[in-house]
Input
Amino acid sequence: MADTKWVYGFDQVSEAEEAVGSWDAVRGLLGGKGANLGEMTRLEIPVPPGFTVTTEACLAYLEAGEQFPPGSWEQVEEQLARVESATGKRFGDPENPLLVSCRSGAKFSMPGMMDTVLDIGLNHEVAAELAISSGDAHFAYDSYRRLIQMFGSVVLGNPDEPYEEILEEFRASTGVATDAELPTDALK
Output
């Protein structure tokens, strides 16, 4: 089990196909989105570097009472290091942050059923530096707000209503109609 390959880089789809024997099995192993990103990478279509945690890893995690399978976390760290190397950015580095997105997947597409969390890697320090380096504090803090809201609802299972109530209060107190119109100080 410790030798099981739980994580494949997008550029390793051929390795996944060799391991499981067919493209249909690759889709089952990597999910439709992961397999397609791997295939696009293999075809040299421009795809940002990334990786997929296998569906087998998910099943093993659930079967073990929500414990990572042996070696899986180390494989995630290895793949993250590969993405950092490919992009020249570092996860959690306020000066040169690597921001990643995480999406659940399945063999077949299920629109509206898959959860995505964007801009993982933002924190207080990274958001503050991103505000400076991008020259757009509104963008930086709105991205951070979205990460907190998505992480809270998708990962932690918090209901959306408390987040929406806070946004509603800030829209009312600042006299704006949409989240996009919120002033940067309100987003902070």
In short: The beta strands are 7-9, 51-53, 90-91, 97-98, 100-103, 116-120. The first helix runs from residue 13 to 20.
